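Task card 7
Instruction: Convert sequence to structure tokens.
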Amino acid sequence: MTQAFRPRGTHIIARLIAFSAFALCGCASMRMNAPSIDLRPCTDGFAYTDDGWRLGIRHYRPEHPDPRKLPVVLCHGLGLNGTFWTITDAHLPSQLVAHGYEVFVPDLRGSGSSRRVGRIGQVNEIIRQTPLLAIKEAEWTVDDLAMYDVPAILDYVQAATGRDRVNWVGHSLGGMLMFAHLERTAHPERIATFVGMGSTIAQAEVPQRDMLRANHALRTLCRLVSTSRMARPMSVARPPGLGRVDAFYYTSTNVDRRTISRFYGYVLEDLSKGALKQLDPYLARGHFLSADGTIDYVHESKGLTTPTLLIAGEADIMSDIPSTIITYEGIGSPDKTLMRFGKREGQIDDYGHCDLVWSRHAPHEIFPPLIDWLDRRQPGVLALPQHPPQVVPSPQLPSSQSVASPT
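Output:
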């Protein structure tokens, strides 16, 4: 993360606010009217949390489901929505479906089709068609996601499939929140396996001054404008000076231009000031803590027993390799695996933060070993009696590897 840019915060914010004038009205409904279901908010069904949120869910069903395999939940990160997983061709949900998995893609609170239950949620649905900020939607923390959103999603999947356990695959904060969930829930067994892609809860180098500056700039920006509505016209054109911002998300040599356009048009959401505030101590001192500061999730991870796979990219700025190794070494599970992806491991390119999902090479370099790892740990599949902790090479598969088509 030491190579991150040093944002000239005031100047970048001013450019973004000025550019957001183009987003005043015309882009508000573009997501609901997207040409593909893969680009629209998740509305196949809704999960309801105990603290009053309705979470949108998208459901992918295999043509030939494998009864031996548990459902997969794909969870997006902070400031994004479920469409994160489906803006590329041959995306991960389609490959999982081709291997017999039922797949559920949620919109966490504050994103996509999710909203508060009741009058305030109805009002915010209208506000979301304007450039105005939603009311009381940006105060939630990562702990709220872990303690309320995750159980609601698990209950929804159980009602839809009859299965009370899932494979949880999270990217960035979608994986970080699983540490918080597993360390605090009374029912960790509901998570049969956990895959964290670019998900770290420890920092190798602190303080992360560049990331702290960026975090503070984002908190200022979120008080002034809707980052979601501001982003949508950037699917067509973006103001100058954002290249170093983009570097946090992806490497331009590894991700197609169409994917980048879809990212700005369909994926970016308003950020939670509560979650950004919770990340400050993590960036300053190197350990991910509960919002009230009473729980150190790094220390508590030694008690985890869930089979865990961490996937890391050599060019990832936000979750770099040294930080991933520290996170991995702190996990107590006897079945844990770390996979690294980059040129030194034999891949075509070094993978950045979102490249792990979006890269044009991910369908044949990252998804197959991930799915193979899951396959070996399904309850109906004859598995090895022990899965000792291991750091494994990430094999480059032949470019002719067949890729499943979306269903």
